[in-house]
Amino acid sequence: MNASELASSYDLVVIGGGPAGLAAAATAARAGVATVLFDENPGVGGQIYRGITANPVRNRAILGEEYWAGSALAAEAKASGASIVNGATVWSLDRTLTVGVSIAGQARMLTAKRVIIATGSLERPFPIPGWTLPGVMTAGGAQTLLKAQGLVPTGRTVMAGNGPLLWLLAAQILRAGGRIEAILDTSSRLNWLRAAMFLPDFLLSPYFKKGLALLREVKAKVDVIPVGNVAAVGTDKLKEVVADGHHIPADLLLLHQGVVPNVNLAIAAGVAHRWNDRQLCFAPVLDADFQSSVPGIAVAGDGAGIAGGTAAAERGRIAAIAAVRALKPDAKIADPQTARQRLQREEMGRAFLDELYRPVAALRQPEGDTIACRCEEVTAGQIRETARMGCEGPNQMKAFLRCGMGPCQGRMCGLTVTELIAEERGTTPDEVGYYRLRPPVKPITLGELASLPISEAERKAVER
Amino acid sequence: MFKRLGDTGATLTVTIDGKPIRARIGDTVASAMLAAGIDHCRTTPVTGAARAPYCLMGVCFECLVTVDGVGSRQGCLVPVAEGMKVETQLGKREAGR
After folding, report:
1. Which residues of A are less than 8 Å from B9 in CB distance?
2. pTM
3. Quick check: is B1 in a domain?
4. pLDDT in tens, A181-209
5. Chain A contacts of B66, Cβ < 8 Å?
6. Domain limits for position B82
7. B43, B57, B77: best mutation site toward chain A, by most A Cβ within 10 Å?
8. CB of B61 within 8 A of CB of B14?
């Protein structure tokens, strides 16, 4: 679909085509709600089911059955009657539920009666010395290359960090015939103490057996080294990984210390967010139907707080059922109770995982010359010093140092900057707050803006 | 850094800084560059440091390249097409030298 084929308004606009977005669009469209789903990637699936509709990996065992479960969701959304538009970048959303979207260089503004933001998560910043060197990449990035393009790391590969995704990716690389020199496990032993109280729930959750099997599979083949710090060393590209006195020559370093909600669109739309101390991130304030502080806007999936792909789909269904009930009170729609029960089951083991894989402070709050803001090359030392001089928050920090003002719009440094300021000023991240974000939340060209349809009368009107 | 897993499917040709490389249908500009062994795609505007694709999911903006004359496109979000012209980018200071 190109931009000119879009309607000027929809009952429901779903933003993001991962599990939450697909389930939401399918649920709403089946109930007769005029639904459009925008996704900026070439195909649906989001990151967890990346490449699900056109996957080059023939051997299904490599990615695992969990991954292939995504094809049922994609098929359900396709059959539901929802308009699904890939290659569509949403760059604006406001309190009037006006959505700015660009497709193949053409921009349109359209209105929605309800919006479900399903923009998911991104990997938590992993600010270590040398993390900007070519050859250093996120684990999620390498997994995307495997899922969508069938690319496997070759040469000397080192992984560092912790979290379920790190172990899953390690297993997938090994199954695909790849080799991993070492996994540098940055988990703190003390995490076990905090996690232990949530162990009973975890034992009952679907993650327990799967997780244990994955750990066994990987540890049988790869050297796992517990470390307290990690640095990437090289001049123009990665040469070696240094951690706690270990020097490991490497061509590729894959970093991961969990995922956090991708908040840019929701914050720019005015959705209230709050610091979540267990997940160490900002997450939107939502009700049981995932409705936000902005009337008509819901946030579903991992964007609502990290709970994983299966939970994301249930959250999408719950948010969509609420939208259908508001838009078409007479429509036949399932009771959300079933989805709520499934969601509860999925969320059971989460507290244990959050505590067990809680990233250590040293790897969230860097020091000295370590780069915090990759775009503007602002160091942790500069941010700490500026906070000590009296800078109270991330928005003032922009004025001093330009951190968060580069092309990624704070996605790679926002949490680091907030936590550094909080630490230096002896206050909480909630008190410090996050970057004020404004549309366009993704860059668009002047040509795209100029392509917005406008009437002669509008062109001559006095602007406010 | 990366190799193709088995059957790579239909291929096409794109140019990177004028040099033709084979890419697979389904590649993005960023994945095609990584598969071709190109070790960086731009330099930074502040210090001129080399950068390569980092997140592959549209959030880090490290894979910015010029695609068919349009600068600062996110290479990981642009699917390759036959004959596409991709150019690596220089940070502003270097470009002015």
Report:
1. 56
2. 0.96
3. no
4. 999 999 999 999 999 999 998 998 878 88
5. none
6. 11-90
7. B57
8. no
Q: Distance between terminal CA atoms of chain B?
A: 31
In a domain, residue B4? The reply is: no
Residue A274, pLDDT above cutoff 90: yes
Share of chain A above pLDDT 90, in %: 93
Q: Best interface-test mutation with B: which of A40, A145, A255, A374 has the largest number of B CBs within 10 A?
A: A145
CATH number of the domain where residue B21 is located: 3.10.20.740
Q: Using alpha carbons, list the distances in angstroms from residue A36 to A41, A299, A410, B76.
A: 15, 16, 28, 24
What is the pLDDT, as a whole number, of residue B97?
A: 61
pLDDT at B8 over 70: no
Q: Is A37 exposed, middle or buried (0-12, 13-18, 19+ CB in 10 A)?
A: buried
Q: Is A277 exposed, middle or buried (0-12, 13-18, 19+ CB in 10 A)?
A: exposed
**What is the model's pLDDT at position B1?**
86
Looking at the domain assignment, is residue B6 inside a domain? no
| CA of residue A10 relative to chain centroid, distance | 26
CA separation for the pair B44, B62 (Å, rounded): 9
What's the domain count of chain B? 1
Classify residue B3: in a domain, yes or no: no
State the Cα–Cα distance between residues A25 and A14, nearest whole angstrom.
7
B72 and A407 in contact by Cβ < 8 A?
A: yes
